[in-house]
């Protein structure tokens, strides 16, 4: 495998442009070479990425993505590794960073063949990681056939291009991987399908009461045909109560509950003539999970109200 470890040189005239213009110009150039493999160090962890991937740009030296890593570390116990289900594993960046921070066993699920190549390159040599090549869906009749890629992420839609992999339900996944029966943390990033998928996964692993961490995006949820507000009563029925919220840059915004969060989502809504540019990362804790609540308290104290 031939990869590049050199960062592109920015010509002097381009350095004078505003940073957002430079970013978009750089993305335009990189998008012309979708199959170029590069090695990048992202927040202290080396990984193989497609050159157009936005992760290095978003992460920088800031807190982007570190909320999940810190949550996994806070949930770890001295006697056993923390077990994680990584849905929408992409190139394996979350798995790599969690393993860099703490001892873990991670089940990565990815359905886009393009990103699967990089996922395997990044995690296959680590026995603590298992990869599932499938689209995880609560409906066994789902027929998502087209991977719609933007920057460094994928959503699936009906179409004529058959580049999505076979589907698997949460129940079937749990039965196939019994070593993850006591799942501790679920991470889901599926571009709008999280609000339907996360409750189904939580129900399948109901006895374990795992902490739920997912991307909560009103625009993408509706684009996928899902009601983003419907997720909260479904999680309440499963016994989930406390919610920690981060902005899309990784900064902690505060704490709330599944009963109250729906009334606080105005920043995520589209406005007339203005496209919403934000989403939240949320961690949701079962009412009986005292250890999970203590772990979240370390990251987003209850006194910090949303």
UniProtKB/TrEMBL annotation:
Signal peptide residue numbers: none
Alphabetized UniProt keyword annotations: Methyltransferase, Transferase
Keyword check for Transcription: no
Taxonomic classification: Bacteria, Bacillati, Actinomycetota, Actinomycetes, Propionibacteriales
UniProt protein name: FkbM family methyltransferase
This protein's record includes keyword Cytoplasm: no
InterPro entries: FkbM_mtfrase (IPR006342), SAM-dependent_MTases_sf (IPR029063)
GO BP annotations, alphabetical order: methylation
GO molecular function: methyltransferase activity
